[in-house]
Amino acid sequence: MTPVRAHDAVRDLLGLLAAGASGEQLAQVAVAARASGMPADELATVDNAAEHALKVRQTLAAHRRREAELTALFDTASDLARLRDTDAVLRSIVRRARTLLRVNVSYLTLNDEHAGRTYMRVTDGSASALFQQVTLGMGEGLGGLVAQTARPYATRDYFADARFRHTTPIDSSVHDEGLAAILGVPLAVGGKVIGVLFAADRSARDFSPDEVALLSSLANHAAIAIENAGLLDETRLALADLNVANATISSHNEAMRRAEEAHDRLTDLILRGGDLPEVAAAVADVLHGGIAVFDATGTELARVGNSHASATEDAVIRARGSGRAVSTPDGWVCAVQAGQELLGSLVLTDRPDLSDADRRLFERAGVVTALLLMLRRSVAQAEDEVRGELLTDLLTAPDRNPAALMARGQRLGVDLGEEYAVLVVTAEQVSRRRLLTAAGRFAVLVGVHADQVVLLARSEDPSGLAARIAESLSSTMDSPVTVGAAGPVCGVEGLVAAHAEAVRCVRSLLALGRTGSGGTMSDLGFVGLLLGEADLEAYVHSTLGPVLEYDDRRGTELLRTLEAYFTAGANLTRAKELLHVHVNTVVQRLERIGSLLGADWQTPQRALEIQLALRLFRLTSA
């Protein structure tokens, strides 16, 4: 073998260094020189050169490692400068810690002081679900020691280290991950430890001071990221609060502007003499919904929109009790009241959700509606007084100046030359003023005369009208209201006479115990004939009309059979002898009569009226 010269070996070492050879390759040059039989002095030179080459290689490796660490730190700082997602920055730090320290697993935990626990925030390289979800108490495990002392701690073999408190949850998760060597450094913000950054290997190893310093630098960056994230969150919350406050102020200003416009618009309507439909239209336009106005009895006064919703009694009671508009399945209801007196209600539809500002607008519309109803009531009361005076003069002194009475009626829109039904309304438990107001909607002229409410109404059926008014007012007043009627008649004299008959009728109804009903003298049967100046033919027709019409139409003898039946004292045998027919024929005719006059025609009271009508029929026919 040709001996290797010292300068050749040194040249080879320099070449290997330049090529980035490993330490084993550098050492192999000295081995080869010794094996070649190189002289001792040259061999010492080669050994010395190889030793220096190894040192140079280590220095270069350290420089490269330091360069990589600095690059990672600069990249982390750059990430922090562009911080948008805190979790992304923390994941990047943990990943770099694992790469730079050449460990199997890296992870980061954060403290929750309120819960007194520490939880896993980010992991990299972990394969155990138990480890990734572990939660530990404050002061437990290696991380607890780091948090308590605010100093880095490293262990070569976790399970053999007795410097920290082992717990079953932590040991189980570390064992499940298969970790042995663990390094933990504190994450501190303002001198307060908020968490720990870890680097761990699945085999036993020692962590160098450079590795501890590098992980500490990364932990400082992580702490900065967390602090910046907190500041950003606070800034976002403050900005959100400012935006909410600005929106609230803008909304409040808009609500005040709308309220002012609505107030001016409604006030202008009232000052110009606007009526309920105009007010309803204005409110509907302001609130962008349908509006319906009702009086205290639930009668509709005005409506804007296509909805048919109405104010239920329960909703009005709730609105009246709370003083606020209340929500219903159909919309919103607001009570219209003056003090404690209920004047009516407002219903808003097509607005299932109502803001506080719009709700106050709706309630203000209720106040305006109450004012308008009070004005209408004042005007109506003034008109009622004038109309009442006309009615009083008409019934008290009709002969004094009939022409003047006719002229006064014309000015009030009442032509006394037309036909009217005259009705007298009375109720024991109701004030005359209240009764007058409620009954006014049925009449063209209403007033109080002789302590009774008197109405003039256009009707061809006074009896039916009296019954309807009695039923309606009894329900409204919660007290029996009795109504007597007469007519229809025309002219001053006819109205005076009809009033007298209506008075007798209402007195007769009360005397007969028919309080709370309504009708005319003809409805009282023979009592009406005795007490009034009734039309006899009308009485006969109202009592026997169906039988008379049947005989005329069919040519039968039901009326004659009826007379024979009563003449025979309701004895069928005697009746058939008077009629000269078979008894079965009498029975069949009486059944037909029962179907025409009603099943109760043989009761004492009906039988008496039928016999009286039969007698009167013969008299009037003669």
UniProtKB/TrEMBL annotation:
Organism: Actinokineospora terrae
InterPro entries per record: CdaR-like_regulators, CdaR_GGDEF, GAF, GAF-like_dom_sf, PucR_C-HTH_dom, PucR_C-HTH_sf
Name of this chain's protein: DNA-binding transcriptional regulator, PucR family
Pfam families: GAF, GGDEF_2, HTH_30
UniProt keyword annotations, A-Z: Coiled coil, DNA-binding
Family that this chain belongs to: Belongs to the CdaR family.
Boundaries of every GAF domain copy: 85-236
Coiled coil ranges: 242-269
A GO molecular-function annotation: DNA binding
